[in-house]
Amino acid sequence: MKKSVYSVVLADDVIAKIDRLAYMQNTNRSNMINQILAEYVSLTTPEKRISSIFDELAHHLYSGETFSELSPPAPSVMSLRTALSYKYNPTVRYTIELYREPAKEQGVIKVSTRTTNSALLEKMLEFYNLWAGIEYEYGFTGKDTFENGVFRRPIMHRKSPSQISGKNNLSAALLIADYIQMFDTAMKRYFNGGDTAVQDILAEYESYINENSEII
Q1: Which of 43, 50, 108, 210 is spaced 20 to 30 A from 117 at the CA atom?
Q2: Looking at residue 90, what DSSP letter applies?
Q3: Given this model, what pLDDT does residue 168 score?
């Protein structure tokens, strides 16, 4: 959304209220004024789009007992957490960052856990490598990374390689929610172990792409 500089004259009392709103929403005065005017003329700004996605994401992910809010959403970032059944039940943090001007990559999902336990970090890396390999085999072209204990996976809206009829025209929030729920289920299955863990994870992913014509 192109922006330009304009000169306007506003009452001091109005600016005081604007600044207060901007502070409460962790943004600046210009952006706050832009959002207020955009809403008045029924124009969807990038901030409004992201906020709407986060609201829907919260509805889908917080409705059960698996995920809980880690911190209130910032203008472009939402964080949630879940517990991992591994020794001392470490907390796994999911951070969804959405880009204001999305292109091929619409954002990124980050997965991390606050730990210095080398055995846990090694097992997490094993799972990330397994997961990245499965996604690559099924046509995912994004670049996953793992640095400083954080796994990063781009958000890319795409068609399922199965190309079958299924759910169509899903919202961005539902696409992200479906993916996070599947990823979290697969990760916990991997940590629970068992002789069929890898096969079960592969079956879970195959089910995901077969049941949906749109995926991320």
Answers
A1: 108
A2: P
A3: 60
